Amino acid sequence: MAEHKPQMSVEDFETIASGAPETVTLEFIHGRFGVKKARDGDHGTVMSWLTKRCMRARPDLDLCGSQGLRVDAGGHSRARPDAVLTPEAHFAGHGAWADPDGALMVVEVTSYDPDTDRRKRHEKPAAYGQAGIPLYLLIDRDSCTVTVHSGPDRRVGGYRDARVTTFGETLVLPDPVGIELDTEILKDYVR
Question: Please, are residues 14 and 97 in contact by the beta-carbon 8 Å criterion?
Fold first, then answer.
């Protein structure tokens, strides 16, 4: 990734983010300020589907939908994934931005906006991998695929492996998660 000057300090970003209304989701990835588009009903339904599957298969885990994470090697980026899979009650007592240690998987569902490609397919996997999060699950409603990124690379960012599954196929989330997902129903939640 090319070096660039951050748009602001992470402290300034946190100040702005703390005052944002609940209808706005702000992120700061690799020094770039970003606003996540409001989620549509299909996005929420996909997250509900995933939550049910995870909780049924692994009741010892939580799928947290609103936890912000300090990501990248220096902790200077702030991401708000669509969900973070952790051991039960892992984020209890943490503030708005927690360290990613202990997170087993982050989840993103694409939205129909121009930033999806840059943020969810490039910047976020780089930041999540650099943070050492074991798995990144991207449910891509544009391409009708689910990509499981594994083998995080803390040194350079990103993941060593990415396995793509087409909606309708069954996939197994590797260790440390170990959950099987039948993705057939995801076909119903795309435009």
Answer: yes
Whether 162 shows a pLDDT value over 90: the answer reads yes
Give the model's confidence band at 46: pLDDT under 50 very low, under 70 low, under 90 confident, else very high: very high
Please name every residue paired with 32 in a beta bridge, in sequence order, or none if there are none: 29
- Distance from C-alpha of 38 to C-alpha of 113, rounded to nearest angstrom: 10
- Other Cβ atoms within 10 Å of 89 Cβ, number: 9
Instruction: Say how far apart CA 159 and CA 84 lie, in whole Å.
Output: 17
Please say whether the dihedral angle defined by the alpha carbons of residues 28, 31, 33 and 36, taken in this order, is positive or negative: negative
CB atoms within 10 A of CB 53: 16
**Bridge partners, 28 (sequence order):** 33, 78
pTM score: 0.84
pLDDT digits (tens, 9 = 90+) for 75-109: 678 889 999 999 999 999 998 899 999 999 999 99
Count of beta carbons in the 10 Å neighbourhood of residue 9:
12
CATH architecture assignment, domain 40-189: Alpha-Beta Complex (3.90)
